[in-house]
Fold Bifunctional protein GlmU.
Amino acid sequence: MSLDIVILAAGQGTRMRSAIPKVLHPVAGNSMLGHVIHSARQLAPNGIHVVIGHGADLVRERLAAPDLNFVLQDQQLGTGHAVAQALPALTAETVLILYGDVPLIEVDTLKRLLALVTPEQLGLLTVNLADPTGYGRIVRDGAGNVSAIVEHKDASQAQRAINEGNTGILAVPGKRLAEWLGRLSNHNAQGEYYLTDVIAMAVSDGLVVATEQPLDAMEVQGANDRRQLAELERHYQLREGRRLMAQGVTLRDPARFDVRGEVTVGRDVLIDVNVILEGKVVIEDDVVIGPNCYIKDSTLRQGVVLKANTHLDGAVMGEGSDAGPFARLRPGTVMDARAHVGNFVELKNTHMHEDAKAGHLAYLGDADIGARTNIGAGTITCNYDGANKWRTVMGEDVFIGSNNSLVAPVDIQAGATTAAGSTITQEVPAGQLAVGRARQRNIDGWKRPEKIRKS
Ligand code: UD1
Ligand code: CA
């Protein structure tokens, strides 16, 4: 069955009190509209049509993609008017209506809804609410069949007592849509062209309106203000946490865990509190992540251990390697198996081969560090001359003494040693000791200065 998806995203969102359009506000690091588009794509539709209005240029600019058709709704005259703007582009047998400010809708729910649609039947997603104030009410006849939707502001007292609310999400046979939208009027409490009036028209044309419900009411919750945005965020995070726990991750506290991107996990992973995963993160089996770690676009191979407060961005950590506490691995960092970095070590565009170690207080940028090489505390690569970046290359089994300055470009060959406090500016041949510091001298009979007394 061919499918067109229309996403309504033209509204202003006044209650956000924001310079940016409502649908661009983020949930879990992606705009609300971005989440809806992501779900829409998983249904493999023929077309995705996004109706934009307020902040249209910004929305288009932020989300432009070859598979999206942006349709401008100049004036927001109602949800029915909004869908009508997309009509010329709709060609599929079924049209599904979604909302740019309802980001948590699940693909499985939409599939159940779409399964209801035939040339003689609509699918309507409804939700039972303890307090349905503001929602359109689902009106059913004596036999329990849906006969209409009445908007809250147009509803009678008796209709307002109905707890079944309209989510707005709807799937209809495409052939009929143009005719129904053409018959809409705005003679109602809000002076708008209501998409919901299509329901009564379909029923009077002899179609059946079948309903489905979301598994969780939060799926159909929109965000009108920042408080609701925060509620969606927490709900999303809890859902993501549950998904990871189901796959074999222990979360010390699912309420203190945030995912802002796509995470794949192995089994027996342990994640302590206040960990943030951003972008594309791959975590293999038996990884342990300590508290307060921030991990972006990185891969942690089997058995990696991150200690508290470690910051990763664009790093690949090999099997059994470890970092932290308070380590910072910047883009281009590669640690091979069992490599180790300890507290206050920063790596950038640096490859540490197997079993290489930098235990404390170091900056290693644009470096290649051979297997089993040990970097002493306080060592830095002087990789930047003010104009260009240069590489520092260390062979296998090198021993860099404490507090070295390695002035790149420089090559320290296998098995070489550098003395503590050295400034290394030249190649160190294999196996040799480099001493790059002034020799100590002791001055006999030297007197400390004495304090001058004020009279
Ligand atoms: C709508 C439904 C109501 C349902 C509720 C669920 C109608 C007439 N009513 O009411 O039955 O219970 O959603 O939240 O459909 N939009 C446009 N262009 C417009 C008008 C709206 O793009 O001209 C977009 C808005 O940005 C918003 C969505 O459509 O994302 C819903 O519009 P809104 O005016 O909030 O409808 P409700 O009054 O909430
Ligand atoms: Ca609304």
The radius of gyration is 31 Å. The chain has two domains: 3-220, 226-434.
